[in-house]
């Protein structure tokens, strides 16, 4: 089976590119797998796929002007003009970096795909895939952001949507039923492979990594849970538009010496090994890396995936969504001088990563792709004999 993963930026740090590259590497042991990244954004990517995975970029954005990475007769002047033209394929609200250069390259790449399965890993790419991928190709959308019961626009034309947790699948199933709804499957991100440094849980360091949505909650909760004189500190990794506001909040709370805003790090495995506690105010980004280091988590139980990863009282603590006081109380419990609870939850976090072992995740993806390819005898939108208007169903996973 030939499988192509399509995402916007494979070179950047983050859960999505890391999960796509890891998943592709495991599937490539038995299948022909390619990762297509719309943009090349770094001379040295944050992570590289396995040796059996072909990685292809379409547009180089490491310089001042976007440059197609296939042979082309376009001059610098023409490229500049095209780069100034807005994209007709992608809503700028979804991704402002798409332009007329990108449209041309993405359209050509999609129309010439030779694959059984196309997996899109960005909502920005759904419309382009629907309009330009060959009709006989099975289309799956990998949607880690669908935890609140809302499908990204355009998923109705997919054969299946994959979410990270069973809870997210149930919420979507309740909200998106009907003949035009795609099949739904719950397949988690795989736990990190290979040796991972382990935390001693003695560093008195809390870490927030990933998207900075509601990072201000973590800072406020940390201030309440760890008063002046405490030896605990909070380290925040990641970038985003919230950073200036976070700096102002840290200044207002007088936390200069105990809250560090560090930006993205290419060495998060080592950073988690230095941590004693993970704080997850938004979804479950970074939780598997934390658990692989034996670091327990405090998270909002807000339907964005954390509740399906963090087991309350087993390997972390869950609190009601947007309740900063409850978040502070949970952090304070794990920051207490008696560290028995912290160590017990951390040990369980490490032991529980087997729930997300790459072997099981890979097998689930293989089965899903094989099921959909087997029934894709007819072009999308046509009915199979005896089943007018029905789509292939995807059993829950």
What is the number of strand segments? 14
CA(first)-CA(last) distance? 21 Å
Mean pLDDT: 87
β-strand amount: 15-25%
How would a textbook summarize the main sheet? 8 strands, mixed
Strand order of the largest sheet: 4-3-2-1-5-6-7-8
Cα-atom Rg, whole angstroms?
A: 22 Å
SSE string, helices as H and strands as E? EHEEEHHEHEEHEEHEHEHEHEHEHHH
Number of helices: 13
Q: In one word, what is the shape? A: globular
Query: What structural class is derived from the secondary structure elements?
Result: alpha/beta
The parts where pLDDT drops under 50 for at least 5 residues are 380-393
Describe the structure.
By secondary structure, the protein is an alpha/beta fold. 33% of the residues lie in helices and 17% in strands. It contains 13 helices and 14 strands. It has helices at 15-27, 76-84, 100-111, 126-132, 166-175, 215-225, 243-252, 268-273, 287-292, 306-309, 324-335, 340-351, 358-375; strands at 2-9, 32-40, 54-60, 67-68, 117-120, 138-142, 160-163, 183-186, 205-209, 233-237, 259-261, 277-280, 297-300, 316-319. The protein has an eight-stranded mixed β-sheet, sandwiched between helices. A six-stranded parallel β-sheet has the order 11-10-9-12-13-14. Strand 5, helix 4 (126-132) and strand 6 (138-142) form a beta-alpha-beta unit. Helix 1 (15-27) crosses helix 13 (358-375) and helix 6 runs parallel beside helix 7. The longest helix is centred in the C-terminal third of the chain and has 18 residues, at 358-375. The radius of gyration is 22 Å and the shape is globular.
């Amino acid at each position: 089976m030939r499988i192509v993963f399509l995402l916007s930026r494979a070179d950047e740090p983050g859960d999505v590119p890391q999960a796509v590259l890891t998943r592709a590497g495991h599937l490539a042991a038995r299948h022909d797998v390619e990762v297509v990244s719309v943009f090349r954004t770094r001379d040295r990517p944050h992570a590289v796929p396995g040796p059996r995975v072909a990685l292809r970029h379409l547009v180089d954005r490491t310089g001042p002007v976007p440059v197609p990475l296939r042979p082309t007769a376009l001059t610098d002047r023409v490229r500049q003009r095209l780069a100034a033209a807005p994209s007709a394929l992608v809503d700028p609200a979804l991704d402002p970096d798409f332009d007329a250069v990108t449209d041309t390259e993405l359209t050509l790449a999609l129309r010439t795909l030779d694959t059984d399965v196309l997996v899109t890993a960005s909502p920005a790419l759904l419309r382009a895939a629907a309009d330009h991928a060959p009709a006989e190709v099975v289309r799956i959308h990998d949607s880690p952001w669908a935890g609140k019961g809302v499908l990204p626009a355009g998923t109705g034309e997919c054969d299946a949507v994959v979410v990270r947790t069973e809870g997210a699948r149930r919420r979507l199933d309740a909200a998106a039923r009907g003949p035009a709804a795609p099949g739904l499957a719950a397949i988690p991100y795989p736990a990190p492979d290979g040796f991972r440094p382990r935390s001693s849980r003695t560093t008195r360091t809390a870490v927030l990594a990933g998207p900075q949505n509601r990072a201000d909650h973590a800072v406020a909760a940390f201030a309440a849970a760890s008063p002046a004189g405490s030896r605990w500190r909070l380290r925040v990794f990641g970038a985003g538009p919230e950073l200036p506001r976070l700096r102002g909040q840290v200044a207002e709370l007088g936390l200069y010496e105990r809250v560090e805003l560090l930006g993205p790090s290419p060495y998060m495995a080592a950073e988690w090994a230095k941590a004693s506690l993970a704080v997850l105010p938004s979804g479950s980004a970074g939780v598997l890396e934390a658990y692989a280091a034996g670091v327990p988590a405090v998270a909002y139980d807000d339907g964005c995936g954390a509740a399906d990863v963090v087991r309350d009282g087993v390997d972390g603590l869950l609190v009601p969504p947007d309740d900063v006081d409850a978040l502070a109380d949970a952090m304070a419990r794990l920051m207490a001088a008696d560290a028995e609870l912290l160590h017990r939850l951390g040990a369980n976090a490490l032991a529980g990563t087997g729930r997300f072992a790459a072997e099981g995740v890979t097998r689930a993806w293989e089965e899903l792709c094989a099921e959909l390819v087997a029934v894709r005898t007819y072009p999308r939108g046509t009915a199979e004999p005896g089943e007018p208007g029905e789509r292939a169903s995807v059993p829950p996973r």
